[in-house]
C-alpha cells in the first residue's frame, strides 16, 4: 500500500472541501472496498478524509412519507431497520444477500453505492484495463466473460456493477443527497447517478470532484410484494451472476431492476409496462439489444426464469 | 540445536530476520532512486510513511500510540500489541480469520485502518476467555472438535459469539423467512450467518454443533 496522509473530518462541508484540495484524495467510511483496492495499489490516494465522525448514520422519516438514510448508516443497520423491513423489504433483502455479516457491519450506504467492479481484469494489475488505467485497453473483451455485462457495455469496458443494494435503490427511485466542496447541496435521482462505460469507464457516476454523499432518500412506500432474487455460484457470500429486484402489485403490474448484467443497476421503465404480460414479454424489452458471448449468454434465460419464478410466487400467495 | 544458545531456531525468529533482511535490501534501492534525477518518477511514487495518533481500548486495556496510517486494525493487534490470536488469512475480507468484535459488532479487522478506530472498544479472542477460564463458545469448540488445524478458529469463535447476539437482537439474515418476525435459531440461520468464516479443514458441522450447544441446544433443523 502506498503511504498517505489522513485526517478526520468533523462536518460534511469540511470533508468535501478537504477532499477537493488534494488531487486524488478519497473519502473513507467503512473502507471494505477501498482498502482492498489500496492494498493492491489499484487505488493510490495520497490523502484519506475519514468521514466516520460526521454523524450521518441516522435513518429518519421524511415529511413526504419516505425515508432519509444517512450516508454512514451501516448495511446491517439499514437491513435491520424496522421501517425498511416492513415497507422497503426489497432493500432489506438486497442488503442481506450481499457480502458477509462482518462486511455489512462495516460497509456504509454511500460506500456501497460507490463500490468498484469485481471484474477480475480490473483487479489484475498486470493486465490492461481502461477502468484502472484509461486508454490501456480492455482485457475482458476476448477474455473470460462469464460474469460480464450483456447490456449497455462498450468497446472499452464490459464490467458489471457489483452492488445488490444499488439494484434495490434503483427500483425504489432513490435520491442521492450530496454536498459539494463549495458547500452547495443537491439531490441526484439514482436514475442519473450511474454512468454507462462508453469511452470513459473510469468515470462511474455523476459526482463532481470532492462531492460527498450525505444521505440517500426513499420516496413513500410502493406497497405490493417485494422480492430480491440473487443467483450465484454459492448459496451465500458471493457476487451475483444475475439478480432480480421486483415489486409486484396485486394486479400483476410492478417494477423490476437487474443486477449482474450491466455497468450499472439495470432498469427500463418501458419494460415494466409488460409485467402483466409475463416474464418473457418483460425481459424481451428489459434486455432488448443485449450482446452476449458464448460464456455469458446464459444470463438472458436466467433473468427470464428468475423473474418468472418471482411472478409465479407473487400470484400464489 | 538445543546446545546452540546463539541461534534462535524458531520459525517466527527466522521469519522476522528474513523480513529485516528484505527491508535492509530495499533501502539502498530507494535511496539510489531519490538521488538520481533520471528516476525521480520512482521517488514520486514512493511517498514517505505518515504517522498518526490513535487511542483505543483492546480487551479492556487502553492503548495510545503513533502508527503508520497504513496499519490495519489486524496489524495493530498482531504486530504492535502482540495479540496474535487474531489471524491473518486472506487479508482481503474473504476468509474471516481476522474477525474481531468492535463496539459490539463483528468486523474483518484486515479491512479497517487502525486510525479509523479512535475511541473504539475492541474484543479479540484473548479478551473472550483464557485457557484457564474459557468463554462458553471456546469450551464448546473444544468439546465438539470445531476445528482441525485451528487457524480459522479465533475468527470462527468471535463470529459465533456475535451471531448469537445478532439473533437475540433480531437482526435478520438472507435466509430469514419473515423479515418482520424474530429470526429463528435454526441450522440454516447459523450456516448463513457464519458464511463469512471459511474453514479449509472443513470443520463446519462440528462448528455448528458447538454454536448449537451454546445457544442452549434448541436449534431447529436437528443435527447439522
Task: Walk me through the structure.
- The complex is a heterodimer of chains A (about 325) and B (about 220).
- With about 325 residues, chain A is an alpha+beta fold.
- Chain A has helices at about 10-20, 35-40, 75-80, 80-85, 90-95, 100-105, 110-115, 120-125, 165-170, 270, 280-285, 300-315; strands at about 5-10, 25-30, 45-50, 60, 65-70, 175-180, 185-190, 210-220, 225-230, 240-250, 255-260.
- In chain A, a hairpin with a 5-residue loop joins strand 4 and strand 5.
- The longest helix of chain A has 18 residues, at about 300-315.
- Chain A is globular.
- The mean pLDDT of chain A is about 100.
- Chain B is of the alpha+beta class.
- Chain B is built from eight helices and five strands.
- In chain B, strands 2-1-5-3-4 form a five-stranded mixed β-sheet, with helices on both faces.
- In chain B, a hairpin with a 2-residue loop joins strand 3 (about 100) and strand 4 (about 105-110).
- Chain B starts with 10 loop residues before the first helix and ends in a 10-residue tail after the last helix.
- The relative contact order of chain B is 0.10.
- Residues about 1-45 of chain B have low confidence and may be disordered.
Amino acid at each position: 500500500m502506498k503511504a498517505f496522509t489522513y485526517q478526520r473530518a468533523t462536518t460534511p462541508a469540511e470533508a468535501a472541501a478537504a477532499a477537493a484540495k488534494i488531487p486524488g484524495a478519497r473519502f473513507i467510511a467503512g473502507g471494505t472496498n477501498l482498502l482492498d483496492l489500496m492494498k493492491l495499489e489499484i487505488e493510490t490516494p495520497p490523502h484519506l478524509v475519514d468521514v466516520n465522525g460526521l454523524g450521518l448514520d441516522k435513518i429518519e422519516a421524511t415529511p413526504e412519507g419516505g425515508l432519509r438514510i444517512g450516508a454512514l448508516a451501516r448495511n446491517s443497520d439499514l437491513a435491520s431497520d424496522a421501517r425498511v423491513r416492513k415497507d422497503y423489504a426489497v432493500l432489506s433483502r438486497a442488503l442481506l444477500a450481499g457480502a458477509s455479516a462482518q462486511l455489512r457491519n462495516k460497509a456504509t450506504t454511500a460506500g456501497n453505492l460507490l463500490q468498484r467492479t469485481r471484474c477480475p481484469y480490473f483487479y489484475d494489475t498486470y493486465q490492461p484495463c481502461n477502468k484502472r488505467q484509461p486508454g490501456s485497453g480492455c482485457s475482458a473483451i476476448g477474455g473470460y466473460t462469464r460474469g460480464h455485462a450483456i447490456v449497455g457495455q462498450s468497446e472499452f469496458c464490459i464490467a458489471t456493477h457489483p452492488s445488490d443494494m444499488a439494484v434495490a435503490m434503483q427500483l425504489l427511485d432513490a435520491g442521492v443527497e450530496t454536498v459539494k466542496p463549495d458547500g452547495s447541496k443537491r439531490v441526484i435521482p439514482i436514475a442519473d447517478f450511474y454512468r454507462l462505460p462508453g469511452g470513459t469507464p473510469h468515470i462511474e457516476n455523476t459526482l463532481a470532484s470532492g462531492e460527498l454523499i450525505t444521505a440517500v432518500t426513499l420516496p413513500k412506500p410502493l406497497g405490493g410484494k417485494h422480492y430480491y432474487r440473487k443467483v450465484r455460484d454459492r448459496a451465500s457470500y458471493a457476487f451475483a451472476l444475475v439478480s432480480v429486484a421486483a415489486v409486484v402489485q396485486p394486479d400483476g403490474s410492478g417494477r423490476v431492476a437487474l443486477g449482474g448484467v450491466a455497468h450499472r443497476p439495470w432498469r427500463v421503465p418501458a419494460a415494466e409496462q409488460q409485467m402483466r404480460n409475463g416474464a418473457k414479454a418483460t425481459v424481451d424489452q428489459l434486455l432488448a439489444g443485449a450482446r452476449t458471448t458464448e460464456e455469458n449468454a446464459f444470463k438472458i434465460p436466467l433473468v427470464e426464469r428468475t423473474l418468472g419464478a418471482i411472478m409465479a410466487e407473487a400470484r400464489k400467495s | 540445536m538445543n546446545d546452540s544458545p546463539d541461534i534462535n531456531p524458531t520459525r517466527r525468529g527466522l521469519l522476522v530476520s528474513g523480513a529485516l533482511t528484505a527491508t535492509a535490501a530495499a533501502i539502498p534501492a530507494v535511496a539510489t532512486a531519490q538521488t538520481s534525477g533520471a528516476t525521480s518518477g520512482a521517488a514520486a511514487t514512493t511517498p514517505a510513511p505518515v504517522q498518526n495518533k490513535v487511542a483505543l481500548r483492546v480487551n479492556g486495556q487502553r492503548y495510545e500510540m503513533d502508527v503508520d496510517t497504513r496499519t490495519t486494525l489486524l496489524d495493530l493487534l498482531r504486530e504492535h500489541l502482540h495479540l496474535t490470536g487474531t489471524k491473518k488469512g486472506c487479508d482481503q475480507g474473504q476468509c474471516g480469520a481476522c474477525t474481531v468484535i468492535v463496539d459490539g459488532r463483528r468486523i474483518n479487522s484486515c479491512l479497517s485502518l487502525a486510525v479509523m478506530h479512535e475511541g473504539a472498544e475492541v474484543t479479540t479472542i484473548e479478551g473472550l476467555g483464557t485457557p484457564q477460564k474459557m468463554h462458553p463458545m471456546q469450551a464448546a469448540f473444544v468439546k465438539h472438535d470445531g476445528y482441525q488445524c485451528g487457524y480459522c478458529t479465533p475468527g470462527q469463535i468471535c463470529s459465533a459469539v456475535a451471531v448469537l447476539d445478532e439473533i437475540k437482537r433480531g437482526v435478520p439474515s438472507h435466509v430469514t423467512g419473515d423479515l418482520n418476525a424474530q429470526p429463528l435459531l435454526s441450522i440454516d440461520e447459523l450456516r448463513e450467518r457464519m458464511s463469512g468464516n471459511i474453514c479449509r479443514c472443513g470443520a463446519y458441522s462440528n462448528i455448528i454443533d458447538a454454536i448449537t450447544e451454546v445457544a442452549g441446544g434448541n436449534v431447529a433443523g436437528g443435527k447439522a
